[in-house]
Amino acid sequence: MSIPKIINQVDTRHKAIAITFDDGPNPVYTPQILDLFREVSGKATFFMIGEQMKKYPDIVSAVSKEGHEIGNHTYTHPKLTTLTPEDCQKEVQLTEQLIRDMTGTRPVTFRPPYLDLDHKISALIHSRSYSIIGALNMEALDWEQPGVDHILSKSRKHAMNGSVLLFHDGFGNRSQTVEAVRMLVGELSSKGYKLVTVSELLELRAAT
């Protein structure tokens, strides 16, 4: 069995970009992000942590009902390479089942916390029919609150056909992220980019 690579970008001729958010849902910032995407008629992918989903089921429901994708980001956000195979499996399965129960849909995209992977974990994730998703704009470092200008400039440079971009709506003050994303989605929309879910972006790969 081949080991899947982390997908940071899709080769496509379509002007489509997948903007993603990790570590939510969050009662303050996730609703603000939903508002931003509603304004530009865009969709996003939210890689949610199971523990957070249990705390804020209404937000999970709102994300799903507005047509956004919910991806699996484990149950407690551990470094998977430090866990036993059994515990790693449990982290994935618990959140997978939560997403099924709360949305009626099985998740098909997975982002490992800290993008921490090895061959055994990759094989496990692959065996559960997930695509493993990374991002191009890791240098944006939005989780470190480096300033709106930094987040925006380091993300803008990677905004191109097929890009996957990473931001955070959970854990800590994400006001810089919200403002940077507000500016970015406005720019991208004005340039004719379509903001799509990761799964939609993966489908465009087959249509190139």
UniProtKB/TrEMBL annotation:
Gene3D superfamilies: Glycoside hydrolase/deacetylase
Domain of life: Bacteria
Record's protein name: Peptidoglycan/xylan/chitin deacetylase (PgdA/CDA1 family)
Listed GO biological process terms: carbohydrate metabolic process
InterPro entries recorded: Glyco_hydro/deAcase_b/a-brl, NODB_dom, Polysacc_deacetylase_ArnD
One matching Pfam family: Polysacc_deac_1
GO MF assignments: hydrolase activity, acting on carbon-nitrogen (but not peptide) bonds
The organism of origin for this protein: Mesobacillus foraminis
Occurrences of domain NodB homology (ranges): 15-196
